[in-house]
Amino acid sequence: MNLDKQGRCVEKQVLIKEAVMKLLTHNLLTCNIKGVKNGFPLKIDATEVVVKESDFNPDFIARMIHKIEWKALVSAAQNLGHGKSLPEDISGREKELCENEEFLKDTHHVLIEIEIMEGNLICPETGRKFPISKGIPNMLLKEDEI
After folding, report:
1. N or C: which end of the chain has fewer CB within 10 A?
2. Which residue ranges of the chain lie beneath pLDDT 70?
3. How far is CA 108 from the centre of its chain?
4. Which family does the record claim for this protein (predicted)?
């Protein structure tokens, strides 16, 4: 384990710096306000988006295809001006598409390389805004929302 001058683990600091709002993260988040039945997908209102190249891992992307809500991913990517080459629906074609390197690269781009640095996530049912600041979404609920 590597420690800095203050005795903090350097590896953990690197992970924290890399923990920014990506569309992969967005695809896993939902509004958990008490009584909300339709809290997914959260709408993205981004004021700052960056694209950072990342190493392509086709095996990871192929595994994630089966775990994400595809239509929500495509909608979010297109809302941010990306993902135009992604198919609207992949139902029944997942295995075939996971063998297509171009498809996997396009999916990698929208899942991993697009980072929302500033903006809001908005609950589709209540309109409640959850701020994104410095790439980190704040999904904490107020006392009366629990």
Report:
1. N
2. 1-18
3. 11
4. Belongs to the TRM112 family.
All domains in the chain, ordered by first residue: 21-136 (2.20.25.10)
Q: What pLDDT score does 16 carry?
A: 46
Whole-number Å distance between alpha carbons of 2 and 134: 26
Q: Cα dihedral sign for 102, 105, 110, 111?
A: positive
Rounded to two decimals, the pTM is 0.84
β-pair type (21-22, 136-137): unpaired
Select from 55, 70, 62 the least CA-distant residue to 101: 62
Kindly state the helix (H) or strand (E) to which residue 102 belongs, with its residue range.
helix 101-108
Residue 13 pLDDT: 43
Task: Give residue 1's pLDDT.
Answer: 58
> Within 10 A of 107 (CB to CB), how many other CB atoms are there?
29
